[in-house]
Amino acid sequence: MKKLRQILTLLFTTMILSTNLAYADPITKDQEFFDAVKEYIMQNYALEVTEDQLYDAAIKGMFDALDPYSTYMDEEEYKAFMEEATGEFAGIGAVVGKRDDGFYLVSINEGSPASKAGLKPMDVLISVNDKAIDLKQDTESLVKQIRGQAGTNVKLIVKRGNEVLTVNIVRAQIQVNPIEYKTLEKDLGYIRITEFNNNTYTNMTTAIQDLKKQGIKKVILDLRGNPGGSLDQVLKVSNYFVPKGKLLEIQYKEDKPDVFYSNGNLQFEKVAVLIDGNTASASEILAGAIQDTNSGTLVGTTTYGKGVVQDLYPLKNGEAIKLTIAKYVLPSGRSINLKGLNPDKKVEYITPTNNSDTDNQLNTAIEFIKQK
């Protein structure tokens, strides 16, 4: 065995010395070194690999050395990213969830193909296009099977109680409305923003107009779980909540900073903002500007802490580069990157028991805003 190891070591050393990667040579990790490594792999790797695969891995490796928000996206990843960013995709208009016993429909968009076909929340998914659903797959994989080009058909079999239903649906373009709102009390309203996609400002304007017609003067703005999104959209929405003045400054590596201002089109007399550890990026811009200008009170737990801005660079082959190009600071000049926003009133979320829908953070915000 010892002799065999010696032979293998000798063979390995001989192959290395036969390339430009010889031990005796000083190594400079430049293009020449990269080409030599690639050539060595292509000539000696025992399994299957292509040059394209090596180039893809090398490019992605460069982004692995950067922050977690900078990435090289393949065509499928870029498509999924754009669907989320724009809030528009081709599908049936239903949210899919997963439990221990399988996949089910969490909610149905009003007026969507799923709604018109008679699907309801809590319907359990059995098959897609006559293919039984693999319970071991993740939700994203199943959603890809249900989505498709607008105008095409998808056949679903669902279970509702003891009844099994077969539904044929024509897919359509779906616009995601990230705004939920309602009246809580006489003059107190509630608005939740799930993300800042291309539909946020328009739907926020509609929600505010409706609430104002109902006599709402105070509002609770729920940004919990909001991962961020479009800078343009959050700047527009901020005008409704941040007084006139400096709103945001974006600082680049070399270029002059961009400074953005609120026009101060305030809509409510009092505002409380719900935040948590998943409140990130664009939602932190809004919450932070409200806090810095004393135009509202933050309730909940410390936010995520993403104080950087990315640029999206689409490529001709359908792929894309997303690169962090700037940092941002809030009206007070502070950066929240890797630190987050601390709430004015800290309230840890308590998971309700006995199937209760009690939201202790929301209840605290209600009591707090009523006392002010």
TrEMBL record:
Query: Which keywords belong to this entry?
Result: Hydrolase, Protease, Serine protease, Signal
For the keyword Hydrolase, the answer is yes
Which residue intervals define the domain PDZ in the entry?
78-162
Q: Which GO terms describe its biological process?
A: proteolysis; signal transduction
Signal sequence bounds: 1-24
Q: Does the keyword Protease apply?
A: yes
Q: Which Gene3D superfamilies match?
A: 2-enoyl-CoA Hydratase, Chain A, domain 1 (3.90.226.10), 2.30.42.10, 3.30.750.44
GO CC entries: outer membrane-bounded periplasmic space
Q: Name one GO molecular function term.
A: endopeptidase activity
- Pfam families, alphabetically? CtpB_N-like (PF22694), PDZ_2 (PF13180), Peptidase_S41 (PF03572)
Q: Which NCBIfam families match?
A: prc
Family of this protein: Belongs to the peptidase S41A family.
List the protein's name.
Carboxyl-terminal processing protease
